[in-house]
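Reminder: ligand-aware prediction takes two inputs, not one.
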Amino acid sequence: MVAHWDQKGVIQKVKEDYQPKEDVLQASYDRLLTVIKEKIAEIQRQGPKFIPECDFTDVEANNGQVPEEVLQRVKDTGCLIIHNVIPDEEVLQRKKEIEDYWYGNQERLGVKARGVMNALGLFKLREHPNLVKCIVAANSLWHDPSGDVEWCPTKPMVYLDGCRIRNPGEEGGMLAHVDSGGIERWWHDEYKQCYKAVWEGKWEELDSYDVSYRTTSPLPTNKFFRAFQGWIAMSEAGQDKGTIRLCPMLKEQTAYYLLKQLLDKELKHWPTVHSMSLRNELFPLINDALVTIPDVQPGDYVLWHCDLGHSVEYTHNGEKDSSVAYIGASPMCPMNAEYLVRQHETFLKGGKGPDFVDRDGDGGPEADFTESRPAIDDLSDIGKKMMGFLPYEVNEDDDEKTREVTLKCNKILGF
Ligand SMILES: [Fe+2]
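Here is what comes back for the chain with fe (ii) ion:
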């Protein structure tokens, strides 16, 4: 879906809704630039080490939560690498299954691995018990200050996405961008309230982990709340090996790309609604802050907040493939349950997920795959629950709201 928007009108409406005084906004932006420039100097000094890391055993030892030693850094940067989540031999086996599925069907279709979403090997990674624990830990970084949001971070739901299997020397890469919407951050009545502090000239008060409005904002091609984007490494990866770069200053970079548009006298065009370009000519400071992740091995999990800018290196000078399976972290909420109802249909057809269908206008090539298409019974119990094929139980220790949300979501899913 390519949409053209009245960008100036959208910006004007934000100003009318929140009535920020121009000088207050400008002063806020000036303060922001000072902080960002200091952060960039520090990020460039530290390089990949700036990205927080921990081991899966640290998460387990902390009762399934992000370890205290890195917690504040994770919140500030908006990203985390958890090492050794899935044993590497198991991940390599899953990658082989994905490749067999892909190559086994490729002959007729010539499809790229990126669009392959239904390989059984992918589902086996998505439902791996260790990964599920990490997803819950990531979801639990979010909170609900109002107490009114219908969500449950400990009962994850899964958004089907593809994978990347990239051989050495292969061209590829992506310019800086942010997913989970583009112009909707200014335009969508619910969604733009996530950024109220920024619109009011108080970016320092922006709480990027407040779940309010996130679970009630279905966007044109982002109808599923992904608290964190993420991938499981299916190969080693690191600097110059065709991997991801992150902009590890969550609040500041979010305020920067939001405010710059409000203050820019010569607005440039945003081309899409499903993700937003953060390319250098529009947002140079985002690009100055991008840093490649530290080295990872098969089975490591890389997470980044849904508002965080990122890019993928264009060069891949490693000696082996650079491969990942995209698996984000998402909580149970009614909006996600609604999406699962539609995803159920696309899964049965073997096609891409609903957001991708809405964006691209077709279900992709997998509907015509004949070999090794998984069925619902191939999934584990937790895999079925994350896909909405089985209901989550109401647990004894669930509070009243969690009980209500669980029952409401189960009802949406037909249970
Ligand atoms: Fe992305």
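The chain has a mean pLDDT of 91. The domain at 7-332 is CATH 2.60.120.330 (Jelly Rolls). We will return to this case in the review session.
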